[in-house]
Amino acid sequence: MEPRSGQLGIGEIAGLLPHRYPFLLVDRILRLEPGVDIQGVKNVTFNEPFFQGHFPGEPIMPGVLILEALAQTGIIFAKCTDPDVLRNKLLVFAGMDRVRFRRQVVPGDRLMLELKLMKRKTAMWKMEGRALVEGALAAQAVLMAAVQPNRKT
């Protein structure tokens, strides 16, 4: 998929990711330089299903979902970087290193998702990711993804 001006809307994102509501955690891609880096957005709203139980009266986005939003942004990046090789393939979590949470993410926040390519091989991608709110670091991690055949195709 060739992004227009390095940006992708929700329809294009849904065409690249297998995830759907309530687990689609990327709303827009603002910048994409295939093979280099990507910047996406997750608009965090009060009506997210996870806020019902995490935590009633004091909603906080679970850290694992912040990492999942980064991972989904990484899948978009990989599929736009190497569309022919990754067509009809799944990218799944293979590991996380240097994970740190720096601030809470709450309803009303605009979570900026940034990833840079560190290394890639045929079946493995390694990216450095950061999640920011208003320029403040909320989370960071090194994410690894493994390429697998899509069993549905």
Descriptive report:
The protein has helices at 10-16, 63-81, 83-86; strands at 28-33, 37-43, 89-101, 110-121, 124-133, 136-149. A six-stranded antiparallel beta sheet has the order 1-2-4-5-6-3, with helices on one face. The model has no long low-confidence stretch (mean pLDDT 94). It is α+β, with helices and mostly antiparallel strands and 153 residues long.
Q: TL;DR?
A:
By secondary structure, the chain is of the alpha+beta class.
Question: What distinguishing features does this structure have?
Answer:
153 residues; alpha+beta; 6-stranded antiparallel β-sheet; 3 helices; 6 strands; globular
Largest sheet: 6 strands, antiparallel
- How would you spell out the order of helices and strands? HEEHHEEEE
**Number of H- or I-type helical stretches:** 3
**Classification by helices and strands:** alpha+beta
**How much helical structure, as a percent, in the residues?**
10-25%
Straight-line N-to-C gap: 18 Å
Output the radius of gyration: 15 Å
Give the strand content.
35-45%
Q: Uncertain runs with pLDDT below 50, 5 residues or more?
A: none
- State the shape: globular
Mean pLDDT: 94
| Biggest sheet strand line-up | 1-2-4-5-6-3
Number of strands: 6
